[in-house]
Description:
Elements: H1 32-40, E1 42-46, E2 57-58, E3 61-62, H2 72-75, H3 80-84, H4 97-106, E4 111-117, H5 144-155, E5 158-163, H6 193-211, E6 217-220, H7 228-241, E7 246-247, E8 259-260, E9 275-279, H8 297-309, E10 312-318, H9 328-344, E11 363-367, E12 371-376, E13 383-387, E14 393-398, E15 407-412, E16 417-423, E17 435-440, E18 458-461, E19 466-468, E20 475-476, E21 493-494, E22 502-509, E23 513-522, H10 528-538, E24 547-552, E25 555-560, E26 566-567, E27 577-587, E28 591-601, E29 612-621
Parallel strand pairs: 1-4, 1-10, 4-5, 5-6, 6-7, 8-9, 9-10
Antiparallel strand pairs: 2-3, 11-12, 12-17, 13-16, 14-17, 15-16, 18-29, 19-22, 20-21, 22-28, 23-27, 23-29, 24-25, 24-28, 26-27
Helix pairs in contact: 4-5, 4-9, 6-7, 8-9
Amino acid sequence: MKIILKQLYYICICFIVLSSCVPSESEQTKTMGQQEFTDLRLGMFIHFGLYALPAGVWNGDTLSSGTVAEHIMRLKSIPREEYHQLAKKFNPNNFDAHKIVRLAKQAGMKYIVFTAKHHDGFAMFDSDYDDYNIKDGTPYGKDILKELSEECKNQGIKLGLYYSHIRDWDEYHSVDMYGNNWDWDKDDPNRNAQVYIERKVKTQLKELLTNYGEIFCLWFDTPGDISKKQAKDIYDYVKRLQPDCLINTRIGAGLGDYGVMGDNQIPPGVLNGIWECPATMNHSWGFHCADSAWKSREDMLLQLIDLSSKNINYLLNIGPKADGSIPEESVDRLKEIGKWVTENGEAIYKNGPSPWFQEMDGIRVTTGKDALYVMLLNKNIDAIMLYGLKNKVIKVTDIHDEVSIPYEYREVKNLDLPELKIKVPGDWKEKIFPVFKVKIKGQPQVDDRPGQMSSGNIILQVGMAEVIGDNGNLQISGMDGVIDTNNWPYFATKNWNSTEDYLKWNFFVTEPGLFQVNVISVSTVRSYESYKREWESIYQNDKDFNKLFFTVDNQTVSGTIKGKERISHIRSAYRPEFINRFGKIRIEKPGNYTAVLKAGFINPTDTDGTVIYEVQLEKVQN
């Protein structure tokens, strides 16, 4: 029996005020570790723990397929001692660290992040803190993390560790909004988060950072109400043990070496700094027997391509079954991803984001040393139009530099705008996301104005707009590169509560015609059901809806933000978006134009204000 450290002492708590702090992503100069992190681009997340045993089912009651199974202890308010009984049955003899690391490499993944301790408090490693760990408390009786760390080293892949540093449902002193408030009174004044940090968190972090070799990154989560002092104390503690270990921003209080998006969250534009998006293959992170909503190979490849073009790493999750085996659905998809990455990895690894801020219809772009990589997403496009590239184009080929692709490069008359037109080979339409390599002279320099795309449509993303107003309330979230702790959608309007504030864009048109104006609004919560309940409580009658006016070339169309017609695409699966159809406008000739979006009425009872991502000008007629 190991010594149960938490019963030996009660640590007196003191704070040391530290004046230094970790800079935000926008202020960072990349260290070697941060640059390496960005270069890797694709990683494997592994959510594995006791929660794999119930697999989303407790006492015959199955969690809905859209629910995360690793939260079953909280969702079913399972008493601590009852949940402990799972450890006595946990025997993942089919966990094969060698095969898992090999699978990650086959998929093109360059690093692995493993759940050393999730919110249930169970340690998936050999810990001296107490016996509630996989080595001492289960029939398995081995240190699964030791096996994984040795395989990562042997096969040359980086290892990171997930550690829930604030939320722990097994600990009395873990105080959190979503903490264990069924075994203990959430208002108990004797519960003290700092006691938990000093006793358990630091003890186990020291074990993780001294017993398992080089740890590439520590993946903290759900910081809740952590104070700046507490977050800084943990940050410094990690750095003293392993100075080169990268720490994510979910440590809390705005600290961290790299930013983490919300779960499955994808922004509509390029982010500055060092970023990662954790993503699931279905809905749940831990194995859920009833979750069959598996994303397709194409969906996950599209996410990888899209995120890479926006300067964001893709951390794709697997949830092993209770016996340690990997679901076949995950294995099959990872192998398929690996086939594409093997063929096209040059466009993903060690590359920068697109030099254009916002998304382009039907394509995504990454930046190499002296080339642009243009990935074709829409098979119906006959030619790709890239506007604003100022560099000399040397040649356009396939990604392997073997097949020359016809292209035209010219200045658009009266617009002072370079145009690169690339013909899409007919047989490429049968390929999955084929890649053009555009060889250029020097680092890319672009005119980044919004304007017409290959489809003929125009997208005016709010991150490209000028914000005008006297009161200074209206903001565009994420433009400063700082983590939004409230999980607000990135590059969306924020605090648009006044009709005095408005947005203005300068954009270009190359092919005039008739355009349908659509305003895309976005939910500030991830759950569509939560959004719907909140929305319907505020907006009950037509007169309640926010009304906007869009003006371009002396034509004005108006509409209300009703948030009812949901749209489906890569961004909106976990952040509901809605199309709000206004009217049509006609633009008679090519040229530079100015557009304005103003509010005529904003419902004062909606504290979120008017939240939109973009205005779409959909070309419907020449």
